[in-house]
Specification:
Helix content is 54%, strand content 19%. It is built from 18 helices and 16 strands.
């Protein structure tokens, strides 16, 4: 063993390489990290072999150390190429075939190194000499060595070309990374050139190449600290941004565009040179003043209109800040999502909705007008028929009396239908005026009971009414319309109930609401039909209108009146057992202030 001071330099480079390996371990999910770690491991072999070569004195031991050196040299070259390929977004190049081809040269070099004594192709001559008191292994390069050197330079040169191209295409955010990567690759390249051609200021037995890798590692370390190297790499732009359907514009601190993906170029109908370097407000010319306001804020999401090729297009614009490691704003990214088709569709839908609403209003107005006009002659028919049945105009024969009764019944049925249609049309047209007056809840219930008791008597049903004593004795509302709700529900209950009872309850639901509840023991409603029975002209099944009569407007009117009054209606039912309809309404009571009667909703 011998101590050569220059081994301290190679050992320092080795420890730097080991440190780089540990620093890269936390970033293993990045595709470019694995080859970079392999390169660092190759550098460890290279520097360790160089250290042993200078420290050992025997020929055999030095030859083994040199073999380790070339194992590291070939590993570093191939791994660096794979790293550059992954870093520049060409990961599809990294296949088993590529790795196999790159492995051929290291294997051949090891073969030539170990068998050089047979053919002298890698080194023409080799021998121990004493230089400055040190035992040095001196050699003369052979043809295989120069082929190996040429191959390594070509691979490094192509790697540099890929990095140069990435520098040209990358925005400022990435150029700092690539600049230091170029320093990292050229430092050992230059050192190796100097060593091979004997231009080194150090003794010939000191290989500058592994020493220069301290510069490489320092450049990579600075990249990790300053430019988030291996956290943000151009592959993110090449693979993700370029493949996005949305347009992406990257602007610098002066809001000038420094990068644009293919989608935004297609959207704008412009070439890359026409956008790069221009202010963002100039590119999105139609909204320039608006953007100046937005560029002072972040993040931003808004819709803008841009004139492109003489036609206006709509975009959803999102602007976010880009920050460096020191949390300083280094630029902004603007993402444009084309919503022209969606905007046009929504506009067409809005027009169609307005037209539909207008048509509905016209229909409701027409029905309201026609219903009103139909009631006048129908009331005359009913009136004259009642006069005939009363005998005022003369006695009727039995057959005439029977037919007149049928005319009266059918006329009254038709009048009810017309009244329902008129009410429905008024509600839909927004012309339903509610009369807000105080009314006695007890008198209101008694009136309803009197009008509907005959329905219970006709079918021999039990009719039960209940009034909650906690409900205020007087409420404010449209007693006539409330009675219409109750009678419609009771009429339905009696119609669809053959045996049992109908229960009519008026009770307080909460501190602020009250309920009108009608429960029957009738045929019930199937679960899948309970949501449709409140629709116009719809009954629980098609046979109901034939068996029980009716048009299906009663419950529709109940629901619409309840909604107009600020309430709602719901139903619970079991098929074959009966149904319960509950209308919930806000409590409005009367209050006297200075002798004047006013109304207020109770919330306490």
């Amino acid at each position: 063993m011998q101590f050569v001071p220059y081994t301290l330099l190679t050992l320092t480079a080795m420890f730097f390489a080991i440190g780089l390996i540990f620093a890269l371990r936390s970033r293993r999910n990045n595709a470019a990290v694995a080859p970079l770690m392999a390169m660092s491991f190759g550098l460890v072999l290279w520097t360790l072999g160089s250290t042993f070569d200078m420290a050992l004195t025997g020929f055999t031991e030095k030859a083994a150390a040199v073999s380790m050196v070339y194992l590291g040299v070939t590993s570093v070259t191939a791994s660096w190429f794979l790293f550059v390929v992954a870093y520049t977004g060409k990961t599809h190049w990294i296949t088993r075939r590529t790795i196999l081809l790159l492995s051929i040269e290291p294997v051949l070099v090891q073969l030539f190194v170990h068998t050089n004594g047979i053919h002298d192709l890698f080194w023409a001559t080799r021998g121990l000499v004493e230089v400055d008191g040190y035992s040095i292994l001196e050699s003369t390069a052979g043809i295989a060595f120069w082929i190996h050197a040429a191959y390594s330079y070509v691979l490094l040169l192509y790697s540099a070309v890929l990095l140069f191209r990435a520098t040209v295409n990358a925005p400022n955010l990435y150029r700092g990374q690539i600049k230091y990567l170029l320093v990292a690759v050229f430092a050992p390249w230059a050192a190796n050139f100097i060593f091979i051609f004997g231009l080194s200021p150090l003794p010939d037995y000191v290989d500058l190449t592994p020493l220069s890798f301290t510069i490489t590692i320092a450049a990579l370390a600075w990249n990790m600290y300053r430019f988030q190297f291996m956290d943000i790499v151009p592959v993110a732009r090449d693979v993700i941004v370029d493949s996005m359907d949305d347009g992406v514009l990257v602007v610098d601190q002066n809001d000038r565009v420094v990068d644009a993906n293919p989608s935004v170029l297609k959207m704008m109908g412009k070439e890359r040179d026409a956008i790069i370097g221009k202010p963002l407000t100039a590119i999105l010319n139609a909204e320039g003043d608006l953007l100046r306001h937005f560029l002072n804020r972040e993040p931003v999401q808004t819709n803008i209109n841009v004139t492109i090729g003489g036609s206006e297009r709509s975009f959803q614009l999102r602007i976010s800040g880009l920050y460096n490691r020191r949390k300083e704003l280094s630029g902004r990214i603007a993402v444009l999502h084309d919503i022209t088709t969606l905007h046009e569709t929504n506009k067409a839908l809005q027009i169609a909705r307005e037209q539909a609403e207008q048509a509905t209003q016209l229909k409701s107005l027409f029905l309201a007008t026609m219903s009103h006009e139909l009631r006048t002659p129908l009331n005359a028919i009913i009136g004259y028929t009642e006069l005939m049945l009363s005998g005022i105009v003369g006695e009727l024969a039995p057959a005439q009396y029977e037919y007149s009764e049928r005319v009266l019944v059918n006329s009254q049925h038709l009048l009810k239908l017309i009244n329902d249609v008129l009410d429905l049309s008024k509600i839909e047209a927004g012309r339903m005026d509610l009369v807000q007056e105080p009314f006695s809840v007890t008198d209101w219930i008694n009136t309803i009971k009197t009008q509907t008791a005959v329905l219970a008597q006709d079918k021999n049903l039990q009719f039960i009414t209940e009034l909650d004593p906690e409900l205020p004795p007087f409420l404010i509302g449209d007693a006539s319309r409330l009675k219409q709700i109750a009678i419609n529900l009771l009429s339905n209950a009696f119609k669809f109930t053959e045996t049992g009872a109908v229960v009519f309850k008026v009770q307080r639901a909460t501190q602020n609401t009250w309920n009108i509840t009608v429960t029957d023991t009738g045929i019930g409603i199937a679960p899948h039909l309970q949501e449709t029975i409140f629709s116009e002209f719809h009954q629980a099944d098609n046979s109901s209108s034939r068996q029980y009569g009716g048009t299906g407007l009663g419950l529709a009117i109940v629901r619409k009146l309840a909604l107009v009054m600020g309430g709602n209606v719901r139903v619970t039912s079991v098929l074959g057992e009966g149904s319960t309809f509950t209308v919930t309404l806000p409590i409005i009571t009367q209050t006297t202030v200075d002798g004047a009667l006013i109304q207020e909703k109770t919330y306490v």
